[in-house]
Structures are given as C-alpha cells and as structure tokens.
Amino acid sequence: MTAFAKAPRRAPMAGRLLLLLLVAPAAAGAQTPREIVDRVDRMLRGASSRADIVMEIATAHWTRSLEMRAWSLGTAYALVRVVAPPREAGSATLKVDDEVWNYLPRVDRTIKIPPSLMMGAWMGSHFTNDDLVKESRMIDDYDIALAYDGDRDGVRVWEFALTPKPTAPVVWGKVVEQVRQGDLMPTWARYYDERGTLVRTMTFGDYRTFGARLVPTVMTVRPADKPGERTTIRYRALEFDVPLTPDFFSLRNLQARH
Amino acid sequence: MRSSVWWRIAWRNLWRNRRRTLITASALAIGFFGAVLMVALDDGISRELVDNGTGVLTGQVQIHARDWRPDRSLYATLGGDAGTDVGALLARIRAVPGVRAAAPRVWAGGLISAGSQTEGVVLMGAVPALERGVSRILDALVAGGAPRDGAKELALGSELARKLRVRPGAEVVVVAPAADGSLGNDVYRVSGVFRTGLDDLDGAYVVLPLAALQSLLALEPGRIHEVAIALPDPWTATAAAPRIAAGLAAAGGPPGATVEPWPVFSPEIAEYARLVEASNGLVVGIVFLFAIFGVANTSLMGTYERRREFAVVRALGVGPAGVARTVVYEGLALGVLALAAGAAITAPVLVLWHHVPLNLGWLIGNLEVAGALVRPVLRVEYSADGPLLGAAGLLVTAVLAALYPALRAARVPPADALAGR
Prior knowledge:
The structure holds 2 protein chains of 2 kinds.
Chain A: H1 6-9, H2 14-20, H3 33-44, E1 48-58, E2 63-73, E3 77-84, E4 92-96, E5 99-104, E6 109-112, H4 129-133, H5 138-141, E7 142-152, E8 155-164, E9 174-180, E10 186-192, E11 198-210, E12 213-223, E13 230-240, H6 251-255
Antiparallel strand pairs in A: 1-2, 1-13, 2-3, 3-4, 4-5, 5-6, 7-8, 8-9, 9-10, 10-11, 11-12, 12-13
Chain B: H1 3-14, H2 18-58, E1 61-65, H3 86-94, E2 101-114, E3 117-126, H4 128-134, E4 141-144, E5 153-157, H5 158-164, E6 171-177, E7 183-194, H6 199-204, E8 205-209, H7 210-216, E9 226-230, H8 237-250, E10 257-261, H9 262-265, H10 267-305, H11 307-315, H12 320-355, E11 358-359, E12 367-369, E13 372-374, E14 377-378, H13 385-410, H14 414-418
Parallel strand pairs in B: 3-8, 5-7
Antiparallel strand pairs in B: 1-9, 1-10, 2-3, 2-6, 2-9, 4-7, 5-8, 6-7, 11-14, 12-13
C-alpha cells in the first residue's frame, strides 16, 4: 500500500511528503478504505529518508524557486534546509512532534513558531506550518469512506471522502482524494473548510521510481481563492531508509550549515 | 380685551403666593439644571470616546490605496507598485484647510522573537516625529523612548514586552514575509515600551521607523500603505474627507486613493457616539416627566383657591376660554421665570465643570468602550443641544402642567361658586 492516503488529510509539507513517499506500492487487496489507510500508517512508522527538493512558488507579485535538502525520520522528525539561492541559503526548519523551529542565518537566530501561527505560510509558500507538523493519524482523525470506484480518464480510480471525527483537532471540514487503483498512486486531493468551500487543491504527478519505489515526484498546491498562484515541490533525488537517529533532529543541527 | 391684560393678570397671580411660586419655579429650574448637565456630561463622554478612539492610533481621516481593504495586502500601497512621492503627498495634504497634521505609515504582519518566546504581531512603520502629530501611541511610552529614524530600533506594547520578557535595550528578532517573496528578518533593539490601555495595541503592536520596516519588507521608500490625518475637531472629519480627496485629485494623485473619515473606518465608535446622542432626548424627557406632576399639583391647588375669583370674572362676562388662558399664561410666565433662574445657576456650574473635570481615576481605571479608551474623567462639553432641549422641555412642562388646572378653572360654574356651593 502506498502512503497516498496521508495526502488527503493534510497537505504534506516537504518533510511530510517524504514520509508519504516512503512506502513501495502494493497491489490493492479487497480492503476497506480504513484498512488501507491503517496499513499505510503502520508501514510509514520508523521509515527514514533524505531528499533534494526544488520548491517553486508563484504568486500574483513574484515567482521564486528554492532548492532544499530534507531529512525525515518516522512521523515525528523532519529537517529542511535551504541550499539555494545564496540569499536564503542556510534557512532551515526543524519539526519535532508538533513543534516547529525556524533558523534565520542572516541574524543567526532560531525562532519557535507559536501555536497561534501554525496556519501561517511556510517559507512564503502556499503550505502552512501546520502542514509540516501533522502526523499520520488518519484513522484517528477522519472517517474515511469510498466515494467513487470506477474509470476516470481511462484510469481505474478510487475517490475517498474524509470527514473529520467530531473531536479531531484538524483544520479541514472535508478532504476528498483520488487514487489510482492500479498502483495506488494519488492523483489529486481537495481540501474544504467547515462551510464546504474549496480551500485548496493538491495535484500529484511525474511518478517515478526512487530506490525501487514508485512515488509521485511533483506535487502542486493551488489556493482556491487566488487563481494563478501555486507552490510546486519537485523531487530531484530521494533516498530511503538512510541511517538517521532522533538526535540528528536537534536545534544545534538546525543551525549547522551543511 | 387685549392679551396684554391677561398677561398682567397672570403675572400678578403668580406673586399672590410668593413662596409657592418660588418653590415651583425652583423645581423647574433644577430640572433644567439637571437636564442640561446630564446632556453636557453625555457629550463629554462621547467626545472623550471619539477623541481617544481616533487619537490613540487611527487619526481622524485615513488615506489608502483603493484595494487596501479588506485584506490589508502588503502590495496595496498608495500609487500602486510604483509607490508615490511621500514628501509631496504629505505637503499636499497639509495644504488642505482644516488639516492639522499628516503621517505616513507602513503595515505588515510578522513574528517577533526574544529568547525562546515568539509572538505574532502587527508591525507599524512610522516616522516618529510626524506620528506624534496624529496619534498618541508614541506618547504612551512607559519605559525607554521612541525608535529613532535610521536606527534599527522598535517600540512595542507593554503586554507584548511582558510576554517576550524584554525591556528597553533588549535585542529582538522580527520576521515578516517581504514583498519580494523572501522572508524578511532582522535584529532590532527595543527602544521603548508603550501602554495605551487598549488590549490590541499593548498586546500585539510593534512600531518601527518607517524606513526600517520598508527595508525589512523589501518595499521601496515611496511605498506606504496609509496616511493618517489629524484634524483639530474629530467631528469635522466627515466634511473634511471630501475636501482632502478633492485637494489630492486637483494635485494629480496618487491615483486610486480613497480618503475616509473615522466613522467609516471605526464605525463602532460612531455608533456609540450616536447612541449617546440619541439618549439625550430621553434624559430630558425623564427629568421633566418628574417635574410635570409637581408643577401640575401646585398649579391645581392655586386654581382651587381662586374658585371665587374665577366665578367673579366669569360673572363679569369673560368666557371660559379667557379664564383658561390666564391660567396657561400663568404657567408660561412661571416657566420663563424658572428658565431664567435655571440658566443663572446652570451656566457657572457648566463653565466650572468644563474647566475642572471630575477625575474618578482614583476610583475606577480606564475603560475600553467600542475599542476606544475612555478615561474615567467626567468633563462636561458645551453644546447647543443641552440648553435648547432643556429650555424646550421646561417650557413644555410648564404649559402642559397648566392645561389641566386651566380646564378646571374654565369649568367653574359662576353662580354656584359665588354662592359658596
């Protein structure tokens, strides 16, 4: 089973996306959506990764591109460091459990993102800090239902509708996600607010094999209220099961220039 | 008979029972005094509210780019992406009659961090020397001083300073998304801490020199979000805004600018002031409602005592209307007398109270009403409303109170009354 089911719930941030891409596709058995998701969750646990990423952000006022290197360990740890352009190089984000720190090389300071600002933009992109910290708790936070099973554009797909459980600490009102049945690759996910209004759309593409695993290597998020704006994350290199330990994800390492 | 005779009779009747007349007139005069003072006090509170609501931060008139509201986008600068000649713009605004001062501002949202504490804040870029002309935020410093132009300094609210555990002299990091897409970040020295009494400002506002914030946000020097304007009298704002807009239009810019008076951008304060104003009529009404029964009572007693006189007058050929008229004239004369007395006691108290307001600061702290700060200082304001409403209320009361006694007097049957029946 792939990690596709993680995506619908939350836009995976760079680090999180890595987690999402860690598992090899498997043939879909006759399982309930919940079982699929549960299996993905379990398979994700304990995995680690290292990736080279290019993030392109386009807004009405500017377009920019950041090259980043990212590490992840399980669902709890992620570290993302900007390597280019030079002006931004060294900027880094550390996630440990539900907490996020940003390192600002220009002033050589680390700031912790307060809970009230978790919905703020991450690195000027259309991702939020919240995207970064959400762990894989799909089956805990959402009721998952199969909304569609059939052919679309000549491809056999499933569409899952995810509605948050009443007590779940999630920001979305509903998430709808489409997955290809053949290889369990996600194709798109739509995020709705509590009033049922579309907030953003995420699309996946350019499925390629990294480390013997098929993964989508391009992810684009588009905010619904700002037509023409988008953030695209592209994987240039991706390694799985790299030797990493939790102490790698330290504040000291956040500030180190690699 | 000519009406002057009836007036004369009314006037004489008034003084037949001097004590009763003086007591009744006193009741009316004190009613007038109370009504005028309460209206003046209401006006004082309303003025305090508007002065503080517009004087602490917003100014009385603001100029923005048309697309500034509601998103307050970083890019919605005056004159668009090209910006504007700020010096020339301020000069044009100051040239408009009735404008006391004008100050440019840049606004942004960001993070401020000190040690392990980080808070989300509103960043306000201002020219401290000009800002003092339109707002009191930099006059509310409780520690340190205002940030200096050209220095990497900032002033922040007292509650924010407490949360960050910083004092003047401390270093803080400010982070904000910049106009070029980068994450602006820099280190600043805390120059001062302000306490305005308004939770929003004290808990989340940071004031930096205009140029320092523009630099952080990667905005050109010509790009500002707002010009705040101070007027000598806040109540002239609605009339002044179109004059300023016309002045700018005549000078050719900046294009797409909107000029708004405070009732537009602080509607809650305007609503509250209107509510206070609307309550004035009610206050006067209640005061004289109490007076009307007292006056009617004494007036009625006066007419009962004079049953025989009315009978004689009727017997001499005066109609019921004539008798009624003399009683009403009497009430009116009493009202005029009471008004003169009321004005005589009210005026000095009004003047005194205006110049020596009652400060209840020792009893209660500052209040926040409709997002504006109100000091517990009871000051009366002069206005035409109070005395006019009070005078109208007093005279109406005097006449209304005389109507029923007049009716009774007119119905006195001459023969029966003369016969003592």
